[in-house]
Amino acid sequence: MSTLNQIIVLLFCLVFLNLSYAQNGKDKAINPIVVIDPGHGGKDAGATTRNGIKEKDIALSIASKIVLLNDKLFENLLELFLTRYTDTLISLGDRTQLAKKLKADIFISIHCNQAINRTASGTEVFIHPKSEVQAEESAYLGFTIQKGLTDILGINNRGVKYGNFQVLRGNDNSNATVLLELGFLSQTDEAIYLTKEKSQYAIALVILQSIIKFLGL
Ligand SMILES: [Zn+2]
What we know:
Layout: H1 3-18, E1 33-38, H2 55-72, E2 79-82, H3 92-102, E3 106-113, E4 123-127, H4 132-151, E5 157-162, H5 166-169, E6 176-184, H6 188-195, H7 197-215
Parallel strand pairs: 1-2, 1-3, 3-6, 4-5
Antiparallel strand pairs: 4-6
Helix pairs in contact: 1-7, 2-7, 4-7
């Protein structure tokens, strides 16, 4: 069995284990539109690991795996769009403009963190709600993703926080909008974890399943 096949089998197991999540009973349209925004790109590398692996590449790699798994495991249950499919720099305005044009139900910006304190670790989720509904939806989406990353993958949970990021502010006030900091590239173990292909598949699957759970599909 090839490594890719082994990964797919492993992921299938994870899917079945976690389909026991209770549905939240939300009544949403079929094939909801989800925009995934791989942070940074092009000349903006974002954070880097000690051995030079860039946040922009990790973010794109995980986002691309979400698209792949949505196709292979869930028959494109979600209508997924990325703000960038290659290593290019897209303006923050264009990223949110895409979500607006598509009338996206969900907008998720993917990032990795770094800190001067090299022991800092874990996921952080940021929201910047412009309405009560958006606050509830975004916090619930963020909480669901973060719980999955912690409970299933064992990543330290630093909570859902308020963050004044343009890529959050620029969205409409109706969709669930979150910015994920998946872990710290400045922390050795997390940097190794986040740059591994297998871990990226696992993270992608948890994000995808969390979106599906959030939507009650
Ligand atoms: Zn970033």
